Structures are given as C-alpha cells and as structure tokens.
Amino acid sequence: MSDDTQDSFRNVNKKPGLQIWTINKMQMVPVQAQCFGNFFEGDCYIVMCKKGTRQSADIHYWIGKHSSQDEQGSAAIYVTQLDEYLGGTPVQHREVQGNESPRFRSYFKNGLIYKKGGVASGFQHVDTNVYNILRLLHVKGRKCVTATEVEVSWNSFNKGDIFLLDMGKAIVQWNGPQSNRREKLKAVMLAQDIRDRERGGRAKIGVVEGNNERDSPELMKVMTKVLGPKPGQLREATSDEESDLVQKNNVRLYHVFQNSGNLVVQEVATQPLTQDLLLSSDCYIVDKNGSSVMVWKVGYIKAKNYPTSTRVEVMTEGGESAMFKHLFKSWKDKDQTHGLGTTYSVGKIAKVDQVKFDVMELHAHPQLAAQKRMVDDASGDVKVWRIEHVELVEVNPATYGQFYGGDCYLVLYTYQRAGQQRYILYMWQGRHSTANEITACAYQAVNIDNQFNGAPVQVRVVMGKEPLHFLAIFKGKLIIFEGGTGRPSVVNPDPGARLFQVRGTSELNTKATEVIARASSLNTNDVFLLKTDHMCFLWYGKGCSGDEREMGKAISEVLSKQDKRVVMEGQEPAEFWVALGGKAPYASDKREEPPHSPRLFECSNQTGRFRMTEVDDFAQIDLDEEDVMMLDTWEEIFLWIGNMANQNETKEALSSSQEYLKTHPASRDPDTPIIFVKQGHEPPNFTGWFNAWDPHKWSVMDPSQREVGGPTGSESDEYK
Questions:
Q1: Cβ atoms of 324 and 294 closer than 8 Å
Q2: What is the largest CA-CA distance in the chain?
Q3: Which residues 6+ apart lie within 8 Å of 65 measured at CB?
Q4: What does the DSSP 8-state code read for residue 501?
Q5: β-strand 381-388 against 391-394: which pairing, if any?
Q6: CA dist list (Å): 696 to 74, 402, 485, 701, 702
Q7: Please, is 563 exposed, middle or buried when counting C-beta atoms within 10 Å of its C-beta (0-12, 13-18, 19+)?
Q8: How far apart are CA 452 and CA 26, in angstroms?
Q9: Residue 86: pLDDT above 90?
Q10: φ, ψ dihedrals at 144, nearest 5°
C-alpha cells in the first residue's frame, strides 16, 4: 500500500463503533455523526461498523441511484484499500439504494433518509439548530424504515403511506388512512430522530390522521399553507417494493481461477455445501440464485445478467460473515477453542477466546472520539438533575450513575474541544415515569439549553438504550433500577431481594441493570449481583470473563455496603436460591460459539400478503406484538406469537417455518424442533438470546408513544 493511501486512512478508528465517509472529488470525506442515516442519492458512501474489540469489521459501500460511475469506482477502490489497511479481515458489502441488506439497515434503527442531490450540488454537512428547511419525506416500511425526499406537493401523497412535512422548526406527520399502527410508530421515531439530531431537540412535532383530518384543524392549516388546497382524491396505496424473504434453495459454489491468461468461473458444487470444498489458496463465489453474491477470497454479475441492485459481499478466509457460514452444512473457525472464557456478543453465547485479564485496562482512557457519538474519553464534568414536581432538583454527586425507572433525569456533560467549552445534554426517561415527567424533562432541557445559548447537543435516552458515551461518563458505576425513585423524601417500598445483571469489561462500557429477582433471570455468560437484607452475592456464570468479574466487584461496592460473598455457578448455597424464590431453569447453555449465529424474522400479513423479513442485530424491542416472530437458533426454531397477531399469521408462520427448514441451502434437518412461544410466557431458552430481557416490557406504554400523544393521536400537545 502506498504512503498516500496510508495517509488517507490515518484517521480511521479501529475501535468498535460506526464510521461513515462520503466520496467527494474522489476522496474519502468523514460524515458527521449527527448526519448518520442521511444519504444523498447522487453520492456514494463507505460505512464501516465494528461491534466488538475482537470482531472483524463490516465495510459497506453504498451506491446512490444518481451517483456517477467515477464515484462508484472510487468507493470500490477505497473499500479494497481499507480492507487491506485493516489486515484483510473485514467483510465487504456492496449496497444499492433501496436494496440495502438487513445488516446495513440495522445500523440505522430509526430509518434511512434518501436526500436529493449530493456533494457536487454544494452539500457540505448538516448543521444542527438550522431551521431554513422545507422538504417532504415519503416514509415506507414497518421494520426497516426508509424516507425519500419527494416533491413538496399533494401529488406526492397516497392513501397507504406516511409523509413527514419538515419545515425546520416544525415537523408534521401525515398518516395515510390505510397505514397501520406499527408504521405510524416507526415514523414518529424517525421524526423524533430528525428533531433530536438535526435540530438539537428544538423542533415541534405534530401528527395528522389522514382519515380524521378534522381533528387536527391547526395542523391542516399549516399543511394547506405549504402544499396548497388538498385535492379531492389521493392516489391509492403503493405496495412495498421490498421483496419477501424467501429461502433460496438454489445455492451454487463457483471456483474462480486463471487459465492461460483468461478468468475462468467453474461450478464445483450445489447445496448442501461443506467447508472442505474451499481451498485457502483459491477464490470462490457463492451464488444465492441471484438474490446475493458472496465472494470468498469479477464481471460475474454482468455475465449472469443479474440486476445491478444485487448485493455483493467480499470476505477473506477467517473473516467470513454469519450469512456465509449459514449456507454451509457445518462450519468450524480456525483455532476455535473449547471451554469457557470471554463472551463477545449481546445476549448470546459467542466464540470463546482465552484472554489473560489485564487489570490496568480498568484504568485506561483510550481515545474514543467519533465512535458511536463518542466525542471524547468521557473525562469531562458531569452534573445531574432529577425531575420533581416538573422542576429540576440537583442530584447528590455521591449517587451519580444511579437511575430509577420511576424518574426522569437531565445529565449535562461538559468537555473541552479546540480550547472551547462544549456540552451534551442527556434526557434520560425512566420506563415507569409519567407523561407529565417526560414533558417536564423536555421543557427543562430547553431551559438549560437557553442558559448556554443553544450550545448543548441534546440526546434523548430511553431506559435500557443508553449510548456508549453515557455509560462511559459514569466510570463503570451505572446502575439502572427497574422502578422506584431516587427522591430522598420518598421511601421506596421494600422490594425484598434485588437482582442485577452486569454487562461490560471496563469502566467505559459497564452497566448493571435490575432484572426480576428470580432464578430464571440468570444467564451462564454473565455476572449477577443479588442483594438481600443481610448479604450481597456476586454470582459468576461459567461463561463470564475475568474483566467482567472485576467490573462486577467494582459495581457491587456502589450497590451495597454489606458483606460480599462470591458464588460460582454450580456452587450456590441454599440461601442464594431461597432469596430467588427457589431454583428454576435459566439460560445455561455452556457451548462455545454455535457454528451459526441466531437469526430473527418478522412474519406478517399486514401489507395484504404474508412475508418474512429478517431483523439484523436484534433485541427484545424488535419483537412486534402485532406479528409472529421466528427465531432460528439452528438447533431449534422458535415461533413467538404476539398478543395482537392474527390467526392467519400464526398458521402461515408455521407452514413457512417448515418450508424454511426443507429448502434451507445447508440441508437442515426438517425435523428440527419448532417451539411456539406466547408473548409474556417466554421460557429461558428463548429469553437467553436477548440481552437484559425485561419480563414487564409489555405491561407499560411505549415512551415514544407518550411523548407525542401516540402515533394515532391527532393534535400533538408537543406541537401546540
């Protein structure tokens, strides 16, 4: 690699996080964090995501539908060079606008926004708190949302979709009469994301129901002023262009080699594929019947007459993607170890690496700027307030990091950058806080923002979804209590024994989350703290690492001044089980990393026809109570039935899961157990695949619905 190329990658952060660059005059230009999720149709982008310190990165190059051939070529070249710079381990993905992979979409939970124009049109960056904007966004999708800029006119509307009229200081969401609840909620979340990231939290949001516009007279006046009189009839709903996720049963392996100076592509096998077909010295292509092409380290797509939107993944030996491994009947990673040690996944059993614990890592402050909105190493000043009777009350610094689910908090973080004071204002919303408290939190945030002349960046944090920087500023002492309040004047009811799940390996990424104090909440991969009236037990699962145990000890000193007793899994004393109400099954699978990662699919017929859509990087929040969800853990298939799912979806999901097994490229056992799980009655072998499972999640209203009066409401209180 040339010195010039090395120089262009010197600012590439090799630590976990998301980084994005756009191609400007054939050069890689970093994209600001507040612009993540915005893609100009005339540009190409490079997106790199690294989930863990020991996991290889995924590098995507995204092609806008109006981008030039030169830009596309530059993006492809930079991706190859970036792959080489990172040691050849990343997996490369080719993404085309409108046909992005589930993994790519998973990085942008609130949706993708396609914007007109590009760098060549004069765009440099989006500046927060700028209101000179007028655009109409056409929002589509229930799980993976996309928003495309369209003509600001009633001619762009239809009856089945949702549209956001963005006027800078105000955003009006118009819900088509035929749109459903899930789509409305996702659109609300997108509107909130635009407000929080692009407007610094200072834009009003209003919601109009297209089949009940008379209930929103003020908002309709605003829309009419901008769009003109509404025509008598709007266009009918358009079907989603996203194709069904069907199992491609025509998977073929091709060998790519040179013969007398000519490139030869020769078919060598069809399903089921086995790992021994791959020789380390050669190049191979796995073709999933044209739906995607995986290159294992080539005019191939053109030669096969596949559409230009075909997704392409490029990978090297040892850096194979989970989807690539899924196409082979069996797979074993090189140097894969046996036994238990550090786990590197969210809520799942991951590959076990025997890593020597270095206690100095607890005191390290590595540079984390630009990493998941990490602006610095979290060594700045912190001030915390709690909302009490709609007013701000300063929190005792001795209790910083302790957050109660019945409260709302404001956290002001101050740091230095380029010799100037900079601010981040976090608005933390407890799961059990009231609508009035959430409203007061937003109101008080504006007051604090005004005190600093609009300088703070405002970040809305929902309980359980704390960003990495938020964890880091509390130095490994973040404790989230499920309920109650931190108000000194209020005596919380005695909950009896309390159980906390500890996740994290350093002061920069650790938090303790209260879970229901039952044995079924335990997980063999984690550290748990059990606090009783007279003792604090530190329970070490067999799969936890030395780093995790050290952080468990550190956080136990904050949680309890009582005597501490270390309990190793399998050696629990009787009083431990008594405090948890007796023994019960829990997530206790002690296997090394399964050869195939679990996959989650949404099964729904709400668009009028049954479809299965994969959810990448899944969490409990992705379980939609209106649908059936299929969780494939390879050895079992779980069908999770939401309380609002209809009978037809349940029937279709069963037959589709059976067909999924029969047609799987890796020739799966058709007799693989299919397990029905009803919402609210999930067994531990299901919940164990999810991080910090909350058994009470569906007994409370979604905070995002409360904030704007619900996605099916009319005039938003926030807008008025």
A1: yes
A2: 85
A3: 41, 96, 97, 98
A4: E
A5: antiparallel
A6: 50, 20, 18, 11, 12
A7: exposed
A8: 39
A9: no
A10: -110, 105
209: β partners: 175
Q: What is the token pair recorded at 394?
A: 């300063």
Model confidence pLDDT, tens digit, residues 240-271: 544 333 334 467 777 777 777 676 777 767 76
Within 425-504, where are the H helices?
Answer: 435-451, 468-472
- The pLDDT of residue 316 is 55
Q: What are phi and psi of 530, to 5 degrees?
A: -110, 115
Q: Report the amino acid identity of residue 252.
A: R
Strand pairing partners for 427? 410, 460
Separation between Cα atoms, residue 155 and residue 38, nearest integer Å: 24
R_g (Cα) of the chain, nearest Å: 26
3-state SS, residue 313: strand
For residue 687, give the H/E element and its range.
helix 684-687
Tokens of 201: 């939290």
Which residues have C-beta within 8 Å of that of residue 326, sequence separation ≥ 6?
Answer: 596, 597, 599, 665, 666
**Averaged confidence pLDDT in the chain:** 78
One-letter amino acid at 321 equals S
- Where do the DSSP E strands lie in 395-504? 402-404, 408-417, 420-429, 457-462, 478-481, 498-503
Alpha helix ranges (H) inside 267-391: 300-303, 322-326
* Whole-Å CA distances, 215 to 158, 161, 181: 20, 19, 18
pLDDT greater at residue 31 or residue 340: 31
User: Tokens 């002349």 identify what position?
Assistant: 453
Beta pairing partners, 530: 499, 537
The DSSP output letter for 395 is: P
Q: Provide the CA 609 distance to its chain's centre, in angstroms.
A: 27
Letter for the amino acid at 177? P
pTM equals 0.49
Amino acid at 303: A
Give the pLDDT band (50/70/90) at residue 690.
confident
Is the separation of the CB atoms in 130 and 147 below 8 Å? no
Q: How confident is the model at residue 701 (pLDDT cuts 50, 70, 90)?
A: very low
Burial of 427 (0-12, 13-18, 19+ CB in 10 A): buried
Name the one residue in this structure whose structure tokens are 């919402």. Answer: 679
DSSP state of 509: S
Please write down the long-range contacts of 229-234, taking CB distance under 8 Å and 24 or more positions apart. Answer: 230/154, 231/154, 234/154, 234/157, 234/158, 234/159
Please tell me whether residue 702 adopts helix, strand or coil conformation. Answer: coil
DSSP element (H, E) containing 512: strand 511-515
State the CB neighbour count (10 A cutoff) for residue 152.
16
Separation between Cα atoms, residue 199 and residue 186, nearest integer Å: 19
Contact 501, 513 (CB under 8 A): yes
Residue 442 CA to residue 435 CA, distance in Å, equals 11
Distance, in Å, from the CA atom of 677 to the CA atom of 277, rounded to the nearest integer, reads 38
DSSP 610-652: -EEEEESS--GGG--TTSEEEEE-SS-EEEEE-TT--HHHHHH
Q: Pick the closest to residue 476 from 573, 555, 360 (CA basis).
A: 555
Joined together, the tokens standing for residue 284 give 């191979």
Q: Where are the beta strands (DSSP E) in 504-636?
A: 511-515, 527-531, 536-540, 564-568, 599-604, 611-615, 628-632
Strand partners, 603: 612, 628
